[in-house]
């Protein structure tokens, strides 16, 4: 947002838009994005009643979020190297499944005595895919990754490896591009724990099936 603010308050654009307007828009976007609030938060009558912020329409919020995203993509394009690791992270949030695409970027720190020994590692979120919206067949998944990389002026030749769960979808993607797929540590740890607790799985299932009870009230705590 700072880049968007800087652009629209520059000398050439200062007359077209006021600083107060951008400050107000920034606070609304920060609130919505950082707390994962609904996009219509700024138009809620209860929000308007309990905040000192000036009203901003949903159209304005969407417009400046898009501008912010464009500015962030420009910054990432400059920061991303030509050797990337692509992380495919399947997530579930409130019963909604989505796939986050990250870039694992290694940059050398020239200030260190031996920069090759201790590179700086950066983890960038490139995009989010929704299986309900996007067809994630092998060919379409490959094309989606290609279009995401293209937005950052990259292509498949910049990919060194993939990181993700060793499911058929990820395996097929890595094979179609000719890059190795590294199983993520979290996935491998989960498999190891399941293997270790295999003999106790029936007991674990019984515990999970037990109904949960609330904490007893104060009167119950003192009963003998």
Q: Describe the biggest sheet?
A: 5 strands, mixed
How many distinct folded domains? 2
What CATH architecture label of the largest domain applies?
A: 2-Layer Sandwich
Number of strands: 5
> What is the string of SSEs from the N terminus onward?
HHHHEEEHEHEHHH
- By DSSP (H or I, 4+ residues per run), the number of helices equals 9
Give an overview of the whole structure:
This protein is of the alpha/beta class. It folds into 2 domains: 2-76, no CATH class; 81-188, Nucleotidyltransferase, domain 5. It has 9 helices and 5 strands. It has a 5-stranded mixed beta sheet with strand order 3-2-1-4-5. Helix 2 (19-34) crosses helix 4 (58-79) and helix 5 packs across helix 6. The longest helix is centred in the N-terminal third of the chain and has 22 residues, at 58-79. Mean pLDDT is 77; it is low at 1-5 and 217-224.
Q: Keyphrases for this structure?
A:
Nucleotidyltransferase, domain 5, 2 domains, 9 helices, 5 strands
Summed up:
The chain has helices spanning 2-8, 19-34, 45-49, 58-79, 138-151, 168-177, 185-196, 201-209, 218-221, and strands at 84-93, 96-107, 120-129, 159-164, 181-183. By secondary structure, it is of the alpha/beta class. The relative contact order is 0.08.
């Amino acid at each position: 947002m700072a880049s968007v603010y800087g652009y629209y308050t520059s000398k050439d654009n200062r007359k077209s838009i006021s600083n107060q307007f951008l400050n107000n828009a920034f606070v609304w976007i920060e609130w919505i994005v950082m707390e994962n609030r609904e996009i219509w938060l700024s138009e809620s009558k209860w929000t308007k009643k309990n905040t000192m912020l000036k009203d901003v329409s949903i159209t304005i919020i969407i417009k400046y979020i898009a501008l912010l995203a464009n500015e962030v993509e420009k910054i990432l394009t400059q920061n991303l190297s030509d050797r990337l690791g692509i992380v495919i992270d399947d997530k579930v949030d409130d019963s909604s499944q989505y796939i986050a695409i990250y870039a694992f970027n290694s940059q050398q720190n020239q200030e260190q005595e031996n920069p090759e020994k201790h590179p700086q590692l950066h983890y960038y979120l490139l995009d989010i895919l929704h299986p309900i919206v996007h067809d994630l067949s092998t060919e379409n998944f490959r094309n989606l990754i290609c279009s995401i990389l293209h937005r950052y002026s990259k292509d498949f030749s910049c990919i060194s490896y993939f990181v993700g769960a060793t499911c058929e979808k990820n395996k097929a993607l890595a094979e179609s591009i000719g890059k190795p797929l590294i199983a993520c540590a979290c996935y491998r740890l989960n498999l190891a724990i399941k293997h270790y607790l295999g003999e106790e799985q029936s007991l674990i299932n019984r515990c999970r099936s037990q109904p949960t009870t609330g904490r007893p009230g104060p009167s119950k705590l003192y009963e003998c």
